[in-house]
Amino acid sequence: MVDDVDVVIIGAGLSGIGAACHLERNNPNKRYVILESREAMGGTWDLFRYPGVRSDSDMHTLGYAFKPWGAQKAIADGEDILAYIRETATEYGVDSKIRYNQKVTAAQWHSESARWHLTITCGDSGAITLRCRFVYSCTGYYSYDAGYMPDFEGVSDFGGRLLHPQVWPSDLDYSGQRVVVIGSGATAIALVPAMAKTAGHVTMLQRSPTYIISLPAVDSGAERLRKWLPAMAAYWLTRWKNVSKQALIFYASRRYPEFAKRLLRKWVRLQLGDQFDLDKHFSPRYNPWDQRLCLVPNGDLFRALRKQTASIVTDTISHFTATGIQLTSGEHLNADIVISATGLDLLPFGGIDFSVDGQAVKIPDTLAYKGMLLSGLPNLAVAIGYTNASWTLKCDLTSDYVCRLLNHMDRHQYSYCVAQHRDVDIATAPLLDFTSGYITRAVDRFPRQGLRSPWRLRQNYLFDLLSLRFASLTDSAIQFHRVPDVDRSPR
């Protein structure tokens, strides 16, 4: 058995590196490690290599609260985000705490020793066990092994190449090729204009439209503030400006959906003119923010459509043929390459099997306390970001809370804490409240949320800021325990 540490952070992506930096800043006495199942840091931004990969929100809010985003593009390319993560890890010295190719497969809590026993597979080297006091899961919410691929009829007849953007082949040459991208989400909307620059033609085949908004890639207000103010002051002002703007758009869309629809439609019309069928291709069946709005930096998708290097087809697939895709309308799309940008395969907390004192814990049976602690699982926190704003905004607050919680337990000599709900008949709802297909397919694998505080997941940064950073750490839903003869001294 490997010697124990104070904290294990699972995942060395954007959230995991941020969590480690928070520990360095606020809990320098803690001994911790970061376990990463892959052989490189960066998570999503190292895994996704498809053309056009970029942030789906501005980097002044997707970036860390403590580390200003210094690049000019606010809607940033994937390689720039990866460089930002690596730079932050080096700056805070957390890169030396990462153990690569170590995948946590099981986590067993032992109350008598107030320790987690983590079973870790180390590539081809077998399994080891690591003991720790606290686990912070920053694994994200999807499987890194493969994306979701529908069971298309007739795929074996297709003579071209079919692939998913999550596993992008480095040898793919699409110059002059006829490409069909299946999907209408953020990945498809990034792929189409990027590939249209060199492909023969790119068709975005969507079953149903999504809401799209065009924003400048460079935030001119942020650039002006950077000229006038110190970097951190300019960053914070820009951050709050964008947080406020995101919140205003979200709540206005939810409160006045018909007005939001008309406004979004008007913006698309300004980009494309009257020659495009907006009713067919840009009028979703759902209300704005029932699913995420997709950002188009500098209108690149609309520009490709105007230049006719790309096109949109709204239809459903009947079956694949030797030369492309047969649609239910009778139209046939010729294709050399088909890219199935059909979403992610969700996997909560890396698929870890949890148990407490020998009893298996089913994640769907747990409730999320303030969206970060799971009922019945001691000394464990999870990083779950916002669905209506930048992911990192919530993860930063969760990491702040974890640091405060660890210091609170040290001060009061507590061995562990656990969130427990007392009401057996508490009304619950899915943790992820979007209607996107990739979420509805897997929402039953995730914890649930309650319909009242502190079990309700508030998609509200200001509320969470007050609740997680400034509110008391003690309430009736959190139980603190001392275990005699267990070393609780800080490292």
Describe the structure.
The mean pLDDT is 92. 43% of the residues are buried. The longest helix is centred in the middle third of the chain and has 25 residues, at 231-255. Strands 1, 2, 3, 4, 5, 6, 17, 18 and 21 form a nine-stranded mixed sheet that branches. Strands 7-16-8-9-12 form a five-stranded parallel sheet. The chain has helices at 14-26, 44-47, 59-62, 78-92, 186-196, 220-228, 231-255, 257-272, 278-281, 300-307, 391-411, 437-440, 461-470; strands at residues 2-10, 32-35, 98-99, 103-110, 115-121, 127-137, 161-163, 178-182, 201-206, 212-215, 294-297, 310-314, 317-320, 324-327, 332-334, 337-340, 353-356, 359-361, 368-369, 373-374, 380-382, 416-419, 428-430, 448-450, 478-481. With 491 residues, it is of the alpha/beta class.
List keywords for this structure.
FAD/NAD(P)-binding domain; 23% strand; 491 residues; alpha/beta
Spell out the blueprint of helices and strands.
Elements: E1 2-10, H1 14-26, E2 32-35, H2 44-47, H3 59-62, H4 78-92, E3 98-99, E4 103-110, E5 115-121, E6 127-137, E7 161-163, E8 178-182, H5 186-196, E9 201-206, E10 212-215, H6 220-228, H7 231-255, H8 257-272, H9 278-281, E11 294-297, H10 300-307, E12 310-314, E13 317-320, E14 324-327, E15 332-334, E16 337-340, E17 353-356, E18 359-361, E19 368-369, E20 373-374, E21 380-382, H11 391-411, E22 416-419, E23 428-430, H12 437-440, E24 448-450, H13 461-470, E25 478-481
Parallel strand pairs: 1-2, 1-6, 2-3, 4-17, 6-21, 7-16, 8-9, 8-16, 9-12, 10-11
Antiparallel strand pairs: 4-5, 5-6, 13-14, 14-15, 17-18, 19-20, 22-25, 23-24
Helix pairs in contact: 1-4, 1-11, 5-10, 6-7, 7-8, 11-13
